[in-house]
Amino acid sequence: xxxxxxxxxxxxxxxxxxxxxxxxxxxxxxxxxxxxxxxxxxxxxxxxxxxxxxxxxxxxxxxxxxxxxxxxxxxxxxxxxxxxxxxxxxxxxxxxxxxxxxxxxxxxxxxxxxxxxxxxxxxxxxxxxxxxxxxxxxxxxxxxxxxxxxxxxxxxxxxxxxxxxxxxxxxxxxxxxxxxxxxxxxxxxxxxxxxxxxxxxxxxxxxxxxxxxxxxxxxxxxxxxxxxxxxxxxxxxxxxxxxxxxxxxxxxxxxxxxxxxxxxxxxxxxxxxxxxxxxxxxxxxxxxxxxxxxxxxxxxxxxxxxxxxxxxxxxxxxxxxxxxxxxxxxxxxxxxxxxxxxxxxxxxxxxxxxxxxxxxxxxxxxxxxxxxxxxxxxxxxxxxxxxxxxxxxxxxxxxxxxxxxxxxxxxxxxxxxxxxxxxxxxxxxxxxxxxxxxxxxxxxxxxxxxxxxxxxxxxxxxxxxxxxxxxxxxxxxxxxxxxxxxxxxxxxxxxxxxxxxxxxxxxxxxxxxxxxxxxxxxxxxxxxxxxxxxxxxxxxxxxxxxxxxxxxxxxxxxxxxxxxxx
Length: 566
Ligand code: ADP
Ligand code: MG
Description:
Blueprint: E1 2-3, H1 6-16, H2 25-47, E2 60-65, E3 70-75, H3 82-89, H4 99-102, H5 104-108, H6 111-117, E4 129-137, E5 144-149, E6 154-160, E7 166-173, H7 188-198, E8 206-215, E9 230-238, H8 255-265, E10 274-280, E11 286-292, E12 309-313, E13 316-322, E14 334-338, H9 348-351, H10 355-378, H11 380-400, H12 406-409, E15 414-417, E16 422-425, H13 426-431, E17 440-444, H14 448-452, H15 455-462, E18 468-470, H16 473-482, E19 484-485, E20 488-492, H17 503-515, H18 517-527, H19 555-563
Parallel strand pairs: 2-8, 12-14, 17-18, 17-20
Antiparallel strand pairs: 1-6, 2-3, 3-7, 4-5, 4-7, 5-6, 8-9, 10-11, 11-14, 12-13, 15-16, 15-18, 19-20
Helix pairs in contact: 10-11, 11-16
Adenosine-5'-diphosphate binds next to helix 2 and helix 3.
């Protein structure tokens, strides 16, 4: 008996004794694993000449045995070796699992949330099963192995028999209680219902052997009073629709269908914030189904995050994450592009130079921009939630494109307005600018509270000018790359050449500087190299002194740059 790794054990405990009520998703999870395994084998056959398979035979099978109280999900995909069974099922394979240990946000969230954040995966089988056996044979191997566990202490792995490559997951269901009816799953009707609801758009046939009844042909010698006789027979039926959801017209699909597809294919617990479906015909024909998530995956802003859309050619998966289809600033978008115009054996190298793919990527980008603009204009609350999670990507987009993406993205930006005490767009800022305000002002710092007290911010506000308060490190880079908005300069309110003062104020300051020349001389001597000059400022309202910078880089940005690794 091998023990589960600690974090797996924690998750298992949650699963088994779960507050998590949506038990029925176990089947979706197992089918999605089966579909992934078939995908992997198919993909191998595309890239490896030694792997020859017949695509039409790839399938998933669901069956049940009422007497033995088992449900079995089988696939003829890539399979697992004994080592892989240990590696994949002995510990949580989910990429987010590392976060499970340390992340304070995770620790604070509810248990149901935790399960959701990692996707439920294989372990969800223990929500309905008291024991699970996985019999698997890896493609290319002639040995099979069996992983077996009752979900509590650990698992065993032993040699087994399996005729061909692939995997069977055999669950022995828990006994039904007053509260929980597990027996409902032990029926043709119950399983079909789950498959249709959660796995209808799986690309491979999900087959079930079903019992049907047919009339027995009337015997020749049957008399007048013959009563029609029936017989039962079994038939293999494909339960799922298999027409990919992205090929369907938006009018034929419910939002619920989209949500289920999104959740199961992209391993998210939450419905998407927006669903975009595109059907283009003509010179370049393609279907695209795109999702703007409600919340970011844990690793979105880390090096490990891989952006991209799944790429299909006539329903066949070419690539799981085609990065070329998404610009960096929309890296959070998930989805699928399917184009029969693309050749099947397209390789990663040729992709970059593929003009059709680039054309699709351009269209996809425009669609996303349009959808975000629509959300901004019609559904402010959603948009602000969106921006809180993904605004950083948009700002980086402006910065890393050196402003080339400004026209497209600047309208989508939001910043905190010191006057209005809420998020505003740049257009809204400009709209509210009083006569005589030349530039769009912003200030950068560690916190809103800190920024609000900054002398330069106070000075600008005393003049009736709003200031955008920025607390993210990328903000200033973004503004510098942007330079202007709506033909107005964007300026750091802390910049030394800010023309906030009137002529009289300037004259008075100059006079005061001259009058106190002696004292300033002494200050300069004492501060030495640390300052370049000491002057009377027109920008202090109720504080005695302020530090400022002379160059194009603000104090805050200097701080940031000095923190960055070389
Ligand atoms: P995820 O699918 O998100 O990776 P799961 O917990 O659902 O997480 O599955 C864990 C891993 O176990 C999978 O990544 C896969 O490598 C392996 N696995 C599960 N089911 C199968 C299967 N039917 N065939 C082959 N490998 C599988
Ligand atoms: Mg899975």
